[in-house]
């Protein structure tokens, strides 16, 4: 190492005579590190000057007393979406009595993922909850490789050995489609979620499963981004391309609200001409005109369960489930 160079984790591991993963776990105060290895890493940290103050504190306490909530979405999107507010409420409820502090991280720039990883693996937190993953996001894998306990919100698309909590998106969407068929609709469209998210894929697959065997076409599909604006834009495309539709399942309540606004503007009566079903059961659903039929998902329980799973791991509990699936329920209202 050059005289003025900042020491790396690899150099700390080499000086301590341990693997990089062991050095990372020792520095982050994580379990499954022998006392001898922890002492060797502490000496290497002191000799090399590897973030001395912060790391010395982590090695002394072995805990930071905080966990991170990583929202893989732009901050303005997170702060304006009632779904994330309820997830956060559930997480705070789950932390009650734990004396753990919560650090909230949100995307502001496209290139912030590396910054997230550096922060999370730098000894600042004891573990992380990661929500709203897109595509094969490398962040969970980076955290797992660094030895940081992590729980994911939603089934990951990337192959990563991390526990996750999800809701039964597939069967929830299937029940929405079956409901529309059962009330006599014969041209059923859907506004699906993003194609790079498991929640979007699972709800679209569930809708197709609910339509299977009915003999009704399933070509009326448009995608949105879980916002009112995205739902409105998708509804306009559906009306243009499939003017004969008589029902629409939107993969989120906000997209359903946007769709209803477009239908009202187009003079399509709800539910007489077009029935509408959403997904979430947000507070806005029963206030719509007409009140929105939707699939209820336990949003706050989702946040609490993620938090329980992470805290249990941090406490060294064994036999924990690698994945947890929460149920959904169709809530019938006047929009169908």
UniProtKB/TrEMBL annotation:
Pfam families membership: LacI (PF00356), Peripla_BP_3 (PF13377)
Note the InterPro entries from the entry.
HTH_LacI, LacI/GalR-like_sensor, Lambda_DNA-bd_dom_sf, Peripla_BP_I
Sorted alphabetically, which keywords does the UniProt record give? DNA-binding, Transcription, Transcription regulation
Question: Does the record carry Phosphoprotein as a key word?
Answer: no
- Domain called HTH lacI-type: residue spans: 7-61
Identify the PROSITE patterns for this entry.
Answer: HTH_LACI_1, HTH_LACI_2
Q: Know the name of this protein?
A: LacI family transcriptional regulator
């Amino acid at each position: 190492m050059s005289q003025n160079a900042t020491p790396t984790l690899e150099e700390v591991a080499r000086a301590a005579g341990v693997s990089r993963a062991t050095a990372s776990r020792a520095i982050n105060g994580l379990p499954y590190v022998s006392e001898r290895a922890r002492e060797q890493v502490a000496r290497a940290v002191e000799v090399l000057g590897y973030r001395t103050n912060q790391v010395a504190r982590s090695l002394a306490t072995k805990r930071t007393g905080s966990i991170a909530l990583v929202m893989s979405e732009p901050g303005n999107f997170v702060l304006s979406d009632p779904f994330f507010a309820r997830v956060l409420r559930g997480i705070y409820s789950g932390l009650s009595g734990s004396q753990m502090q919560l650090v909230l991280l949100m995307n502001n720039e496209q290139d912030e993922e590396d910054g997230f990883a550096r922060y999370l693996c730098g000894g600042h937190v004891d573990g992380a909850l990661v929500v709203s993953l897109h595509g094969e996001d490398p962040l969970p894998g980076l955290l797992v490789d660094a030895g940081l306990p992590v729980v994911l919100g939603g089934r990951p698309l990337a192959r990563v050995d991390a526990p996750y909590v999800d809701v039964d998106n597939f069967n929830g969407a299937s029940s929405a489609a079956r409901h529309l068929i059962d009330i006599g609709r014969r041209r059923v469209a859907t506004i699906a979620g993003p194609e790079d998210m498991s929640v979007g894929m699972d709800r679209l697959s569930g809708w197709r499963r609910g339509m299977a065997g009915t003999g009704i076409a399933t070509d009326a599909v448009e995608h949105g981004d879980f916002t009112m604006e995205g739902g409105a834009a998708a509804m306009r495309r559906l009306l243009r391309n499939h003017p004969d539709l008589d029902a629409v399942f939107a993969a989120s309540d906000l997209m359903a609200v946007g769709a209803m606004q477009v239908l009202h503007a187009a003079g399509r009566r709800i539910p007489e001409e077009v029935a509408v079903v959403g997904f979430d059961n947000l507070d806005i659903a029963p206030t719509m005109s007409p009140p929105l039929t939707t699939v209820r998902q336990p949003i706050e329980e989702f946040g609490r369960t993620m938090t329980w799973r992470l805290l249990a791991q941090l406490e060294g509990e064994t036999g924990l489930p690698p994945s947890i699936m929460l149920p959904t329920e169709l809530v019938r209202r006047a929009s169908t």
